[in-house]
Amino acid sequence: MSAVPADGGAGLWMLAWRRLRDDRVAMVALGIVAAFLVMLVLSATGLVAADWEEEVGVNYAPPTFVGAGPATAAATAAAVPVPDNPFDPLAQDLRALRAQLGTEQTAARRASLPFGADKWGHDIVKKTIKGGQTSIVVGLVAALVAVGLGTLFGAVSGFYGGLVDDLFNWFYNVFTSIPSILMILTVAAVLQHKGVTTIVLILGLTGWTGPYRLIRAEYLRHKAREYVLAADAIGASAARKMFAHIFPNVSHVALVQLSILAVGFIKAEVILSFLGFGVPVGVVSWGSMLNEAQNELLLGKWWQLTAAAVAMAVLVTAFSLLADALRDALDPKVKP
Amino acid sequence: MLAFVLRRLWQMLPTMLGVVLLVFVLFNWVGGDPAYILAGKMSSPEAIANIRRQLGVDEPYPVQLWIFVKQVATFDFGQSWATGEPVGQIIASRLGPSLTVLVPLTVLETLIGVALALAVAFVRGSLTDRAVMVACTVGMSVSILVYIIVFQYGLAYQMGLFPVQGWGDSLGVNLLRYAPLPILIGLAVSIAPTLRLYRSFVLDEVHQDYVRTARAKGLPERRVMWVHVLRNAAIPIITHVMANLPALLIGAFLLERFFGIPGIGREVILAVERSDFPVIKAVTVCVALATMVFNLLADLLYQAVDPRVRLA
């Protein structure tokens, strides 16, 4: 469309990357987000934390740096011998079972773990990694669904205009007149099946309005540009003009929206799971960890709460800083 | 002016119709047969047929939609499936507790947010400014759940500064005894995003010509910020506050749930847990209506704040 940029043909993405690379905060944030994603991949492929449900510690084993607490001492001393009932026909089996149980408990369960254990003696570190896997996957996939829908609607609405645009705008007004959290709860009430797919659908289907508004505005700006007219002249179809020609030029808006929505959805998943509308029983997420931790706190067991809260805060902070930096780096109005 | 209001009210009709349609489609098509939910696990075919007849769900869809439209128009949403109480009565009685927390929260949030935004924008670019912005980003990243759990445990349970939860009958007791901790947590959660937003509104104004003029004629910096800049930054601030009011109403649902406050938010969560569709439908429609009305009010307030704004 235009002449080669002055600095040796560097395109929008190259320039954005250069700007991003000069931003030290952004690079640290990018590193942290990348580390979480690596952890996610390792956890999803079963290389890390696959055995998080193994009972490696005693109940509520405290973190190593705290030292074994009185609760632990009580738990280890629990192996009090129970006298056999001479009339019990199952005495033999019971003795065998008890012996088996006793050896397993004393052999396998540790008094303290690096970051402690939960009610069942699960390692908090592994649990946090596994919980992060659920929360991040839900956040990212839901953001992809929402941005995908928003981009599709925005493209069609902005490109065609007229009656189509009116219809989508009406739809947008209807959706935005219901606050998102109420919308999410309403859809949660309607979809009775609980599961990771459901929560992705709930968040994805209710989150398209923001991307829609921005993408639509971009398509309105771009559809009359010369390069689109040129594509029209050589006989490109409407779909081709919309997605092969215009979309690459507005994709930075979609990318920034994706990172902003992912942050919001990770936070929303935690709240939904906490309320019991999210991940099903047996699936661990940061929200379900906070849910368990609420009662533990009354017993003075603060480590599960801290682990989930800190892991989430670090990821969300890094993600938000990255999103801010991305927006600055990709904004064509900001010249390097 | 009157023509503007009338036209805006007229424009609300298609949106409201859309909300009704959306809610109807969600609950009647996607939501499955309410009779099965109501009858529970021990359901016989006769019992289900009975319930279907009572609810009117054996009627064709257009008839059901017409019933719903009539309900919305008359604000008579029938009875709660869970308690049999009229839905209108439920909403009316839950409004008070919600407002007892939300009105002070909104007022304090706006005042503190505006004051801090002006102060931070005044020293923009300085170390203080950057430190506050980083603190805001970190503060926004901690889940509201964590704030609630930690504050409730620390300030109420351990230190005994506030009641752990509960709600009284008189406004005074509620306001002085039960509301302060939820309000404090609400502030802790909302002040960071509010401050970031308001700071950007103020910064948009700081570079305008009139600010340079005001400085040039020798006005003290304090007066420039508080009178000239604030007056102009007020428009986006008002929009933000007004647009957020209806969302706030249910946005505080976690606070209401944790502190046992019998407000709208807690009612919605209860209704979702019990599949109490009439209550959810009614709250959704009412909040959507409130959103539209508050948007209109925000537009009207514009003119009061800025004489340049013409409502055409």
List its traits.
heterodimer; A: 336 residues; mainly alpha; MetI-like fold; 2 domains; 13 helices; 69% helix; elongated; disordered N terminus; B: 312 residues
Write a structural description.
- The complex is a heterodimer of chains A (336) and B (312).
- Chain A is built from 13 helices and no strands.
- The longest helix of chain A is centred in the C-terminal third of the chain and has 38 residues, at 238-275.
- Residues 1-5 and 71-80 of chain A have low confidence and may be disordered.
- Chain A starts with 11 loop residues before the first helix and ends in a 6-residue tail after the last helix.
- Chain A is elongated, with a radius of gyration of 27 Å.
- Chain A is mostly helical and 336 residues long.
- Chain A has 2 domains: 8-48 and 123-329, MetI-like fold, CATH 1.10.3720.10; 61-122, no CATH class.
- Helices cover 69% and strands 0% of the residues of chain A.
- Chain B is mostly helical.
- Chain B is 79% helix and 0% strand.
- Chain B has helices at 2-30, 34-39, 45-55, 61-74, 87-122, 127-141, 144-158, 171-178, 180-206, 209-216, 221-251, 253-258, 264-274, 277-305.
- The mean pLDDT of chain B is 85.
- At the A-B interface, helix 6, helix 7, helix 11, helix 12 and helix 13 of A face helix 1, helix 6, helix 7, helix 11 and helix 12 of B.
- Chain B: This is Glutathione transport system permease protein GsiC.
- Chain B: Residues 95-298 form the ABC transmembrane type-1 domain.
- Chain B: It is a multi-pass membrane protein.
